[in-house]
Design brief:
This protein is mostly helical. The protein folds into two domains: 86 residues, GMP Synthetase, Chain A, domain 3, CATH 3.30.300; 70 residues, no CATH class. It contains nine helices and three strands; from the N terminus they run αααββααβαααα. Strands 1-2-3 form a three-stranded mixed β-sheet. The N and C termini lie far apart (72 Å). 7% of the residues are buried.
Length: 183
Amino acid sequence: MSFQSIPEILERLQIEALYQQQPIQRLLDCWQEVVGKVIATQTRPISIERDVLWVATSGAAWAQNLTFERQRLLKKLNKILPTPLVDIRFSTARWQPTKKKSSTQLKISSLDHPSYLGKVNNLNQNLNLHYPPKNPDLAFANWSETIKTRYSSLPLCPNCQSPTPKGELERWGVCSICAARSF
């Protein structure tokens, strides 16, 4: 009778469990690690048939883009799977959206955007503008007055001296146009 240590026995049991596990289950366990979090939320491995992995995607654009990436994904997957895959096929055919919302999904409000100017209350009433305008010249004059009034209280960009929302100056130190030019 041979005596083996408990860690050796547990290790052997884990290895046996891996060999008994179905290839698709192994794939599902490592899918997010292989493709990344963003792609994993938009895709779902469906089956392995004749060494070809079938993956459902949330949209045609995802299917097309991932088709271009399939060789890279195959290399990563074949390092993990015991039986190598020959190809990957992406399709929207069997996509079924999940009921639960992802907790990683960001909720961004326009109020948080650095270019947000704030609420403009009754601006047109303060300017005594005429609506609807009688002709195109009056419409342009109304629009011009509205813009002048809206931007008259804004600080100026240190680079171009144009009126700039306060959030842009706090974030980039310049207006968004000057910030984009620097990139």
